[in-house]
Each structure stands twice: as C-alpha cells, then as structure tokens.
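no rush on this but wanted to send it before i forget. what follows is a protein written twice so to speak, once as letters and once as structure tokens for the fold. mainly i need to know what kind of three dimensional shape the backbone takes. thanks a lot i owe you, the record is right below.
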Amino acid sequence: MVALILAAVVGGVVGDIVGFYLPQGQVKTLFTQHYQKIGFEPTTFNLYAISFTLGFRFKINFVSILFIILVIVYFKWWYL
C-alpha cells in the first residue's frame, strides 16, 4: 500500500517536472493534466484553545498512473 502511494506521489512529481520542460501541445497536456482529484477538501476545526485543519487529496496524472502500474507489475513479478 505504501509503495502504491509513493508511486503516485513520485509519478505526479515526475510528470509535473517533465511537463514543465515540454513545449505547448498535446504531450504537455498529457503530462500535466490532472485527471481526478481524490480525497476531501480541507476542513478547519476551530476550538477555543486550538484550531487545526484536516484535509487529504490526490491529484492523479498520466505519469502517476504509469508509475502505479509499474509498481504493481514489479511486485507481481518479484513476489510470485
């Protein structure tokens, strides 16, 4: 589970970095477009003495999905 989350995060970072250096066009859109935002909006709880914000959101792009698939294939190959 941790490997899948790490693959999604690293894939997102790699996709944004690669997309930053690409010229405008379809390939840049493929690398930088976030397909689905998964999670929930940040919510602030304001108590008398303390206040905290809780939120969790994944922004998945093409490279994140690619990295997740590669991790699944790697672990299937390695552990079976």
